[in-house]
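User: Hi! I have a protein structure encoded as tokens and I'd like to know what sequence might fold into it. I'm fairly new to this, so please keep things simple.
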């Protein structure tokens, strides 16, 4: 394993002009959940190629339209027309400059899999994939469990895997829990994408948090398994919150720990209240048979106050890892 820097620069300016800043490939029509081989001309990547994965809380990501729009028509919309397509006062459409910044990171790093939190439903995810990512990915999302209308979703690169299956895991999870089964030739990988209960309310949601963490721990298999997402808590061993005891007893490795990032330099979330607090709430855990080749947080400028934070695409950062799942 080799040590990598925690911070990576991938875009010069978070607030890029227009909804299509950066290089975006030609549009590809979105296909239903069908076998990957249905895509003509797609060549599967070798099993020996490391997998590049990421997790990101997109912070209230809504992209709803009142009709089908081509990318050219979408780009031609003025801001007022774009906002008017989603009249919700609680869940308005996300600023297009922020959507463009999120897309720029995904395209720059060419992720094979992106686990997303706080996505405003299937329409949002499919619009984002088509309008900003040129349809490079297949969308997996289940609109279940969330009272806020925000869900866990996944973007899986087309042609990367020989087989992809997904399901929503039944049970009481605050923002639903997605399980992906990814196959490349004769090797399979199980991935869970989570968004656990926040620490809000009179009791800080502790009963629900304990139940969710314990249920998640009971689902994880001991080999070829990845768990990623927003855990809404601290899981750095030695500093972790007690509700994660059972989960951290599992044979799992935090990717940032695997590459030697010091605990003091691991943060994925910005919060400004009485003061600034940066902490790691987002994680990628891998079973010990998976080699972590490199990992890091994608961070541009560090905000100094709340106003600067609100100019960023999210209060969270992308967490990424390049892994080798080996062969059977």
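Assistant: Happy to help. Inverse folding works backwards from shape to sequence: for each of the 328 positions I chose a residue that suits the local structure. Here it is:
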């Amino acid at each position: 394993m080799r040590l990598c820097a925690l911070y990576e620069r991938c875009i010069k300016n978070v607030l890029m002009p227009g909804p299509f800043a950066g290089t975006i490939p030609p549009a590809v029509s979105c296909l239903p959940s069908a076998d990957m081989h249905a895509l003509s001309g797609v060549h599967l990547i070798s099993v020996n190629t490391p997998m590049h994965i990421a997790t990101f809380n997109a912070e209230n990501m809504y992209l709803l339209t009142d009709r089908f729009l081509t990318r050219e028509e979408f780009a031609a919309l003025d801001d007022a027309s774009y906002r008017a397509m989603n009249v919700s006062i609680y869940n308005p459409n996300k600023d297009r400059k922020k959507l463009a910044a999120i897309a720029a990171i995904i395209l720059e790093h060419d992720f094979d899999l992106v686990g997303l939190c706080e996505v405003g439903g299937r329409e949002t995810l499919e619009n984002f994939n088509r309008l900003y990512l040129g349809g490079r990915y297949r969308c997996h999302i289940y609109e279940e469990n969330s009272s806020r209308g925000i869900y866990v979703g996944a973007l899986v690169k087309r042609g990367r895997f020989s087989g992809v299956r997904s399901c929503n895991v039944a049970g009481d999870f605050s923002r639903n829990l997605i399980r992906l089964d990814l196959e490349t030739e004769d090797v399979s990988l199980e991935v869970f994408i989570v968004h656990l209960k926040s620490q809000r309310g009179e009791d800080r949601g502790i009963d629900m948090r304990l139940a969710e963490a314990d249920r998640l721990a009971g689902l994880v298999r001991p080999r070829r398994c990845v768990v990623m997402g927003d855990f809404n808590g601290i899981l750095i061993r030695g500093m972790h919150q007690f509700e994660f005891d059972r989960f951290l007893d599992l044979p799992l490795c935090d990717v940032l720990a695997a590459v030697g990032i010091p605990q003091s330099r691991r943060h994925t979330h910005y919060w400004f209240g009485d003061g600034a607090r940066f902490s790691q709430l987002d994680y990628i855990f891998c079973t010990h048979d998976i080699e972590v080749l490199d990992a890091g947080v994608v961070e541009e400028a560090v905000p100094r106050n709340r106003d600067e934070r609100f100019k960023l695409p999210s209060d969270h950062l992308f967490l990424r890892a390049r892994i080798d799942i080996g062969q059977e």
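A useful reference point when you look it over: The helical segments are 71-76, 79-84, 96-109, 121-132, 206-219, 245-248, 255-258, 306-310. Feel free to ask if any position seems puzzling.
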